[in-house]
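Q: What does the assembly look like in three dimensions?
Context provided by user:
Components: four
Sequences:
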Amino acid sequence: MIIIMEERASQEAISLVLEAIEAEGLKPFVNPGVERKVIAVLGVVDVEKVSVADKFAALTGVERVALVSEPYKLASRAHHPAGTIVNVRGVPLGGPELCVIAGPCSVESREQTLEIAHAVKAAGAHMFRGGAFKPRTSPYSFQGLGRKGLEILAEAREVTGLPIVTEVMDADDCDQANEFADVLQIGARNMQNFRLLKKVGGMKLPVLLKRGFGCKVEDLLMATEYIMAEGNMQVILCERGIITFEDSTRYTTDINAIPVIKHHSHLPIVLDPSHAAGDWRYVADIALAGIAAGADGLEIEVHNQPSKAKSDGAQALTPDKFVDFMTRARRVAAAVERSIRVPVVTG
Amino acid sequence: MIIIMEERASQEAISLVLEAIEAEGLKPFVNPGVERKVIAVLGVVDVEKVSVADKFAALTGVERVALVSEPYKLASRAHHPAGTIVNVRGVPLGGPELCVIAGPCSVESREQTLEIAHAVKAAGAHMFRGGAFKPRTSPYSFQGLGRKGLEILAEAREVTGLPIVTEVMDADDCDQANEFADVLQIGARNMQNFRLLKKVGGMKLPVLLKRGFGCKVEDLLMATEYIMAEGNMQVILCERGIITFEDSTRYTTDINAIPVIKHHSHLPIVLDPSHAAGDWRYVADIALAGIAAGADGLEIEVHNQPSKAKSDGAQALTPDKFVDFMTRARRVAAAVERSIRVPVVTG
Amino acid sequence: MIIIMEERASQEAISLVLEAIEAEGLKPFVNPGVERKVIAVLGVVDVEKVSVADKFAALTGVERVALVSEPYKLASRAHHPAGTIVNVRGVPLGGPELCVIAGPCSVESREQTLEIAHAVKAAGAHMFRGGAFKPRTSPYSFQGLGRKGLEILAEAREVTGLPIVTEVMDADDCDQANEFADVLQIGARNMQNFRLLKKVGGMKLPVLLKRGFGCKVEDLLMATEYIMAEGNMQVILCERGIITFEDSTRYTTDINAIPVIKHHSHLPIVLDPSHAAGDWRYVADIALAGIAAGADGLEIEVHNQPSKAKSDGAQALTPDKFVDFMTRARRVAAAVERSIRVPVVTG
Amino acid sequence: MIIIMEERASQEAISLVLEAIEAEGLKPFVNPGVERKVIAVLGVVDVEKVSVADKFAALTGVERVALVSEPYKLASRAHHPAGTIVNVRGVPLGGPELCVIAGPCSVESREQTLEIAHAVKAAGAHMFRGGAFKPRTSPYSFQGLGRKGLEILAEAREVTGLPIVTEVMDADDCDQANEFADVLQIGARNMQNFRLLKKVGGMKLPVLLKRGFGCKVEDLLMATEYIMAEGNMQVILCERGIITFEDSTRYTTDINAIPVIKHHSHLPIVLDPSHAAGDWRYVADIALAGIAAGADGLEIEVHNQPSKAKSDGAQALTPDKFVDFMTRARRVAAAVERSIRVPVVTG
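A: Here is the predicted structure of the complete assembly.
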């Protein structure tokens, strides 16, 4: 931690900063001769102590306080150089093989769900996604089938063999989803719902954590820390677009985040091009970009009848388009020395 | 609702859009002669139906779908022209008198809390804020005193008479806070925690809903709709800064949002300059700007010893600075024909 | 300057960094004992040398390079603690009296211009604005009257006595405007047109520099440095809104920027609420917020017939609304211990 | 064009809007029965007339005005369905073969420039970039060699055969570059320097127009219109990152913009991953993403000694890393059915 003083900071202000550092059991070190007074904070300033930065920043004469180390630990590649591979019922996520998660935004009915599950399986998807509990911006929109939806997802798994990824919104959802699903998804709007993070941190199932659309990569890794600090190390990160001034797409895919996350963290990262674009016309191209940038997987919305979907129809690929996409995806994966396994279709 | 077709949309594509509109029980109207085909959707396209926009957008040849009406109803001034005044134990929020909510970020101890409560009361604050349940970005940071914190807040109310505003993070917090607090605050990170919104919507206490830092004004009003649709009409909105590229302050205060919200909604709006700036040096000036722009109140962090605060010390005013601020605030309020009542100090 | 190494940086990488620092004639100092290797760069790392940061950042094993001092000098309050007052033909900008600059977006005709000039003078404006050279996003939109427009502005000055503020887009405009105007305005889109900055830096007239809508406060102060380094110290800064995800207004007024600029720079800062909002309905409230936040002046668009304006009609106040605004503005200015001089109306 | 009235707009206000439309020689059409009054503007509302939108928006009772058509014409795919191929001295940009433009940020010396030119040629680049006129954020930073730099670039072309891309900042630069270069580049900070756009619009050389970091895709296409309206149809667009709240990279690559621009425009689009990332560690992955997303080319900074570069060293690839990148790029190009021609190395 480095404390940068205001240019006009008095000697007294500097002395008070030195005292404050010592009062925290840390050791100050005033850098010689630099333009402004710069005070390094020595000693064990680990992640448990980063909040002292805020105390120091409150002192008179302090211009700002800069962290030197990352404010997270368990998610950091510095402490875990090898990449983590999350294993979901035998499907690896994070290794040389890319993992494609596909399915509808919402579970709307048994027929719709099974039809799409068969279709994405046939096209080569490795996991099936579908929402039983839906976080909708309008209270008047379809809110999901709840437990009934989970039962339909379980049936989809039974008939296709694909592991199930489904979103949870509170502790009770988690307990229900625990009976039926294979990966618990936390949506962008709940990325900093710390109670929910702690809850899934205490569970056994892998967690797919979506980046909040107003959150930095560092915030995402801090949120991950909540899950891992509770003991659940099976976390899959997901970039799904951030909010920017550009309005030709619903969000802006932060493609940079993929190599950035690979640099800072050992956890696998998948890209959700569907929410990132909000428009099916752009989904395939963005997904291919994600593969080329180094993503470990994709989460893509597929619907058999987008114009009748109860949610997010505008961004869903039809099964035909998804088949076409998978062909292209396999080629791009091979070009970056990854692969997309062609599942043995038995269904 | 207006559907704008791609310039090269085929006649067949247009026909399918017309059919889709009729299939939803609505009536299409093709505008004559405009540059591209523009189809108006007539009939009762109220807030319960806005999600059909997404279905129409999924159709081939559709460039985009534009809403004509606001996608919210209960929060809209169109349906409730007079401004709402929320009454909190006799303290009005939303009328000609401005309401100042002040106190520490976190309840840290009985002594700290009571000292600050007395100080802000003496300076003229109308409500007391303090967090017992703290949403922190790091799991290693102070997480609040929980129920013990609520008990301290209740004591602060008893000795000062100031109503208590405190944050809740899940349903259980709500039930506990219900015993002790006067206003339930929902933090920026939970603005779209729809389960929590529904929970407080079913309660009797007024709700102070903070805008998510990545959320548009429209998203805030949609989130409000979740609370109001459950029957709780006592909602206070709060602007607390949005995330932008500017990094000289922690967030960017969206001062425009104050008159914009006044234009679109009848609900009272307060400004939190402390989180918006993240730096005590700028808090007072931003707060005065909020009053001048038409805010109905302020929520300001005050701490007796910012450099020892367990959270957010860098943005807290000391009691002395708060007294000075209140003097300035009264003058600005008077200048915009509002007032800040000077409480009779009895404590 | 501080160089923060990657956690896994090798000893060899560190040695190369030390050598690179010395090769620039600077002195490295390795901080003891902190979590990662942190190397302070001692010696005269002044603004002429900040670009070495980029060289150091290119070295293997360097995580990032942080500046300790501000990368600008002439605009910095550190080197010029007292606030600068720019004097425009006897009208002070930067002192206790606020300065209101008002007028139409474009000079459209002699009649329109003179009518508005008389109206804003009568309402109490201190300078008159109007564009002869118009930077329009569409090449098909009205591009200004050019020299003819300047002549009309000069006539407006003659009949009202108000100094003239007008925008310049290239060196030739500057030479023409020099004959007729009192303040040269550089628009947001040209804030980093460095050739233009150098040109006005070599001139005698004061410059009003608008912040680019995608530029940080620091970028604005760096752009200012281009002007001042050429010898022109009469620079007025202008906040006019930044581009963010919020779309209920055209830009987001960065109200925080006002106290932030006051903290970092000695130059006067005015607020342009018209471009910041893009909607006349919000202009007055935002302008009042600017006064309360500490702005030294305002630049406001006024048009006698907004619905016939050749540019930006949607954000213009009518003369009646401007009169009403000025009354409110005087009250708010007084509340923050500033004043708005009531000019002796002689016209 | 569609005019949406406020919910409470009076009948009189509506009448005034209808009159205003007719006064512009256009024909209003009031949509039947929709929630609010929605007025379509019929007749020839082409790009020359879009500024009437602003007039209508100024009228009382108007909530907002929405364009139905794109506000640009010459750049629009609607009017030119086939993709444009720009031919630069025999090197095609926009067809099935991708074009790689590589070279240093600045021309620093003859030796440095020729060494890099030979290196990028050998690695398979198709054009050579280098700046003689440098737009630097600090006036104290290296500003380029000017005409001397252009002469060096011309020599680089002579010895390698690679066409030259170089940036121009004003009209005089254009005239000088015209003697030596093959493509005139307009930098992000000058994207809305309309005088410069008109100047290059009147020239014969192809123009590479970089997107402003605070500008929407639509703004980019409007800026293009300035060039094309002057008669120069040889425009290459360039995505180089936008400014967002994410600060782990210098800008955020808007990868979505690539398919979005392909949808709306017939012009070729290249990606500059170097400025988009600001960090060499991420450049290759982002560049590959650009190819996968459908970019027609890349512009990449390569420097023989990044830690001694006079500008932007932190984002430059070394020649070795560039060779490695080109190998990967060829594979990804092939995977998306494009190709990168291997030039016959004769130098």
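Follow-up: The mean pLDDT of chain D is 94.
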